[in-house]
Structures are given as C-alpha cells and as structure tokens.
Design brief:
Layout lengths: L7 E10 L6 H7 E12 L2 E7 H6 L8 E12 L1 E7 L13 H14 L4 H17 L2 E7 L4 H14 L2 E5 L1 E2 L12 H15 L5 E7 L7 H13 L4 E6 L3 H10 L6 H7 L7 E5 L5 H10 L2 E4 L1 H6 L7 H7 L2 E4 L11 H14 L6 H8 L1 H6 L17 E4 L5 H8 L4 H11 L5 E6 L2 E5 L12
Parallel strand pairs: 1-4, 5-6, 6-7, 7-9, 8-9, 9-10, 10-11, 11-12, 12-13
Antiparallel strand pairs: 1-2, 2-3, 4-14, 14-15, 15-16
This protein binds guanine and zinc ion.
Zinc ion binds next to β5.
C-alpha cells in the first residue's frame, strides 16, 4: 500500500471554521473547536474528525494504527501566505530604505541572481522548507523575471506536494536592463509556464506584472490578454504601497483616474486578482476593489519595515473588500504568519480596532482560502478537503508556556500564540496528508549559495 493510501490518525485540539465569513460576526459563528478530537487522513485528504472518546467507544485503538498524539496542541488548517517573493528570502532585513530605493539598492541586484536555475532551485527548496517550519502550507509567490526561476520554484513545490500559486515577474521598463523582458517575451514565457504548470498536481499560475511603474501599456495589455486566453489563472501585483510610488504612477499614467484604474483598464481586476498592500487607496479605489471582488493582501510586517503606512483593515471589512494575510518577504521581516498576525493586531490597535484571536486565525486559514477561491478544496477540516495542517504549541517557548498556563480559554491561548509565536510555536506541519515538519527533528536548512 502506498503511503498516501494508508490511513493516518491524529489526536489533538482541532480549531477551524465551517466556511467563508461575510463579516466579523460570521467569523465568530463559523468558529469551531473540538477540544479532544481524532482526525483520519487518507489519500492526502481529511476523511473524518470525531470526538476522541467517541472513537474509543467505537473500538479505536491507537496502538493498532499509524497514530500521532498532538494532545495539548492546536491542530489548525495550514496557514496561507497570499503574497511573498521567494528570491528575496536572501535579502530579508536589508537596512534603511523605503520602497523605491529599497528596490533599486537591494531587490533588483538580488533578483538578477535568479537567472541561475541552480540557485533558484536551492533557494526555492530553502524557502518552502522555511514556510513549512512556520506552518504555512499554501503560498502565493513572486518568482523573478527569468522563466527558469519559476520552473525551479514549481519543481521544488511539486517535490514537497505543496499547494502554491506562483508566476514569473513581468517588467519591461524602469528597472535595470539585466532584469527587463518585453511585452512579447513576457507573454510567451508566461503562456508556456501556464500550460506547463497551471493545474499540474497542486500548482496554480499567477500572471505577475511587478507593478504598474515597471510595465509599459503594451505589457499590461499582454497581462490582460493572458487572463483572457487562459481563464482560471490568477493575477498578482502591487498597489498603492508607498506615497512616492503612488505619485509616480500618477505621473506615468496621467490619463487614468487612479492607480487601481490603471490595472482595471487593462482587464487586471477581478476575483482572481491579488493586490499587495493597498495602503494608500482613495474612495474610488476602495469602491472598485469591492465591486470587482479583487483581493487586498494585508502585509503588516512589510508595511512597517519599509515605512509604507498602515493598511486600514477595518475599512476593508466595512467596504466588503476581500482581504488575505501576507508576509511579503523580503519587504516583510518574517515568514511566520503568527508574526504577521501579531503585527496586524498592533496596526489595528493604532486605529482603535480590536482584531480578535478568532478573526486572526480566520485570516491566516479559511479567510486566505476564501480570498484565493480555494475554500472548496482547502482551508478547513471538512471531509474531502486537502489535508494541509499546522500543529501549534502553546508551550513553544518557556515564556509562552508560562503565559499560556495563566490563560483560561482556547481564545486566550490562541491570542498568546499570535502575539508571541513564530516558528518555535509550530510543532508540526502536514502537506497533502504527509507529515513534512516536526519541530526539533529538522536537518539543518543551510544552502551554500556563494
Ligand atoms: N513593489 C514592486 N516590487 C515590489 C517588491 O518586490 N516588494 C514590495 N514590497 N513592493 C514592491
Ligand atoms: Zn511584494
């Protein structure tokens, strides 16, 4: 019998949501906690989740099956990172600049190295293992401009059977020559990658114009044509992250109403279109984000680190804009979605909004799945869902253990996790039903890159 077709049983406290939520009230209503549960996985899917005592009553004997006892820990759906740049893993924590200078000084010279497919593969492997260590099982990823950097990434994700959405960056102006493609080459390379990878195993493709300033009209038109020619692919880009960037877009596109209108006029808005940041939107952009069902990616550690500004989460909820949570590494400072949630909470505090622990968990799991229109296949524990799981340890560090011991409720413990947690709070992770990470049992993850 192959590994995937054998049943695997997990015991623990299971936390998830019954489905997507329209508002904060719905998030609370949909929250589910099974204090002592037994989950059966088979063929890469969740098959069954029942109270442990009930299973024992039916004759379940842990000694007779493949069994992992995670008692005292929270089993949650694997975290979803809706926006991250894998080639920037090696330049995380680059000092001193805001967006546009940070791109020229650090980002572009680093991404140049991804013409080398061996480096691209080594860093993809490293990056994906780091995600798993952090309990992130699905990510939406920018590769570099070189198509081989995307092939390398998809090959690495396939080897781990991880669900990913990714794409080759398109940029044909306002960047160093060594990083430029053309409208035609971007179209052809993207089309080849889509036809090779979109829907192969767990891979999905996102057409990836970097942001409006680095694409000509002709290239943005090609991006729109890719979405038309290959329905079902995603689109990912950046929007209104930094005030100087917004001014620059107004200069480059004087005939457009605003930044979002540039994308919209090329057919680059809609339910599968993901916009990183959305920090400096005007009234019309908020309204058009909501009406087009486009997704805003809230990237708290990046928005703080690059001094970009504060995403107005409450406004997004009030306007009915779909929101997903993202690390945006290397602008972001951690691959941990627990760390993102800790910073998200603080940003909301600054505008007088309380982000509850339950809503935090929703954002990193079912909320992300729903924003990616993947809630039919993952994001909670319904039988038949893909078995991507994270196991959170409220005693991941001495301080957390001490604080959690004082916490009366699951919600309080969860809040301790999102405030103090990072990879040390992730005891294990499963991708498509396979145990792919156990804290403390990892071989060192230190590629030699030169
Ligand atoms: N805007 C255009 N490119 C980038 C990038 O690589 N990172 C961030 N944070 N913003 C961008
Ligand atoms: Zn980004």
């Amino acid at each position: 019998m192959s590994e995937a077709s054998k049943s695997l049983y997990l015991r623990g406290t299971f936390l998830d949501f019954t489905g997507p939520a329209a508002d904060a009230g719905d998030v609370e209503k949909n929250f589910r906690c099974l204090d002592d549960g037994l989950m059966r996985l088979e063929g890469g899917l969740v098959r069954e989740l029942v109270p442990y005592p009930e299973a024992v009553g039916r004759g379940f004997k842990p000694g007779e099956v493949d069994f992992m006892d995670w008692s005292g820990k929270f089993v949650v759906p694997g975290f979803i990172d809706a926006h991250v740049h894998y080639p920037q893993t090696e330049m995380i924590a680059s000092y001193g600049e805001q967006l546009l200078d940070w791109l020229s000084m650090y980002t572009f010279p680093t991404e140049r190295k991804y013409a080398d497919k061996n480096r691209a593969r080594a860093v993809s492997d490293f990056f994906l293992r780091e995600l798993l260590k952090n309990g992130t099982t699905t990510a939406v990823v920018f590769c570099a401009v070189f198509p081989q950097s995307a092939d390398a990434f998809f090959e690495a994700a396939e080897a781990l059977n991880m669900r990913t959405v990714a794409g080759k960056v398109m940029m044909d102006r306002n960047a160093p020559d060594y990083l430029l493609d053309t409208p035609e080459s971007a179209y052809e390379d993207s089309l080849r990658l889509i036809d090779k990878w979109h829907g192969r195993g767990r891979a999905l493709y996102a057409v990836t114009p970097r942001f409006a300033p680095t694409s000509t009209d002709a290239q943005l038109r090609m991006a729109g044509k890719l979405l038309e020619d290959r329905p079902g692919v995603y689109m990912q880009t950046h929007l209104a992250e930094n005030k100087n960037e917004v001014r620059w877009v107004a200069e480059l596109f004087p005939r457009h109403r605003n930044y979002l209108h540039v994308y919209e006029s090329f057919g680059l808005t809609g339910p599968r279109c993901l916009f990183a940041h959305c920090v400096h939107l005007d009234e019309d952009e908020w309204a058009r984000m909501a009406e087009s069902r486009s997704v805003a990616c809230f990237s708290p550690t990046s928005n703080l680190f690059l001094g970009s500004g504060m995403f107005d989460y409450k406004r997004a909820r009030d306007e009915g804009v779909r929101v997903a949570l993202a690390t945006d590494v290397g602008g972001g400072t951690s691959l941990s979605q627990l760390a993102s949630l800790g910073e998200a909470y603080k940003i909301c505090q600054l505008s007088g909004h309380k982000l509850s622990a339950v809503e935090q968990l929703y954002l990193a799991t079912m909320g992300g799945a729903s924003s990616l229109s993947l809630d039919g296949v993952l994001g909670n524990f319904e039988p038949g869902k893909e078995a991507d799981l994270a196991v959170l340890d409220p005693g991941g560090t001495d301080l957390m253990a001490m604080r959690s011991a004082q916490a009366g409720s699951v919600r309080e413990k969860l809040f301790v996790l999102t405030t103090l947690g990072d990879d040390r709070a992730v005891a294990g992770a499963y991708a498509a039903g396979r145990l792919v990470h156990v804290r403390g049992e990892n071989p060192p993850n230190r590629p030699r890159l030169g």
